[in-house]
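User: Just a sanity check before I run the rest of the batch. Below are the structure tokens for the first item. I only need the designed sequence back.
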């Protein structure tokens, strides 16, 4: 018995002017890529400190808006999750990124002081959590390990730690992040990862389920926006907001979480 061949679903065409607006946004982000690669690693750390200040200043509004978007009233016990999975997660990631950039700028290795040993089976293992007092306090009893790919030695892990920030002048071009909608920190963290791991600025398509929290991304990333590396806004397909941190023409890489028709349309036009 043979199965019938399957075909990919047709991707609806973008409306009039939408492709041009996306191309203009990606062209603007290309400028952001040039600005980012011109910054020293120390300057990048300074920029992220400014972004952190903006995130901290809007944390309450972020968590409150996220909770309201899920119908959680002021006394609902799950409102705390919106703090932990939203601004707290981003603040923690920014702190870690700033620490990594500062170490690289000072000529140190990002894994200095972090235990790297062998896991069962001989794989290299990084004891990645907790590393700070606040993490030990807030998440007491929890630990996190990163098991590296088979064949990666502890020495190789240290040699590669820092990823693209070891070669800061090498541009990763423009990426496309298609954001998921279940956790409000995910789109921000994905864009931050593209920027630091690949020196790649990214166009962020905010998932429609984050229609209320989405616009606030701009305020949180305002310092980076002034450096043309994050959070401008444009109108996307169907009138939805497309938040774009800073850089094509056409995206070099796609980083996708979640998905719907609009996500497919954006992916198709930027290929």
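Assistant: Here's the designed sequence for the first item:
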């Amino acid at each position: 018995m043979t199965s019938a061949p399957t075909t990919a679903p047709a991707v609806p065409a973008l409306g009039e002017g939408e492709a041009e607006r996306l191309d203009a946004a990606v062209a603007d982000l290309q400028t952001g890529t040039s600005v980012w690669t011109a910054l020293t690693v120390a300057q990048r750390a300074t920029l992220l400190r400014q972004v952190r200040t903006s995130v901290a200043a809007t944390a309450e509004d972020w968590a409150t808006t996220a909770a309201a978007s899920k119908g959680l009233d002021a006394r609902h016990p799950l409102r705390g999750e919106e703090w932990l999975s939203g601004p707290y997660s981003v603040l923690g990631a920014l702190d870690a990124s700033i620490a990594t950039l500062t170490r690289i700028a000072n000529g140190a290795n990002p894994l200095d002081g972090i235990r790297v040993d062998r896991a069962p089976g001989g794989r290299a293992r990084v004891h990645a959590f907790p590393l700070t007092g606040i993490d030990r306090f807030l998440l007491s009893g929890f630990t996190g390990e990163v098991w590296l790919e088979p064949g990666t030695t502890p020495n190789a892990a240290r040699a590669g730690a820092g990823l693209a920030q070891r070669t800061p002048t090498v541009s990763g071009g423009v990426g496309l992040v298609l954001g998921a909608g279940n956790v409000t920190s995910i789109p921000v963290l994905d864009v931050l990862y593209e920027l630091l791991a690949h020196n790649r600025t990214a166009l962020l398509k905010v998932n429609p389920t984050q229609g209320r929290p989405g616009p606030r991304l701009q305020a949180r990333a305002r310092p980076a926006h002034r450096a043309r590396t994050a959070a401008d806004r444009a109108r996307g397909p169907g009138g939805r907001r497309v938040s774009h941190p800073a850089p094509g023409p056409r995206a070099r890489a796609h980083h996708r979480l979640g998905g719907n028709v609009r996500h497919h349309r954006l992916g198709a036009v930027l290929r």
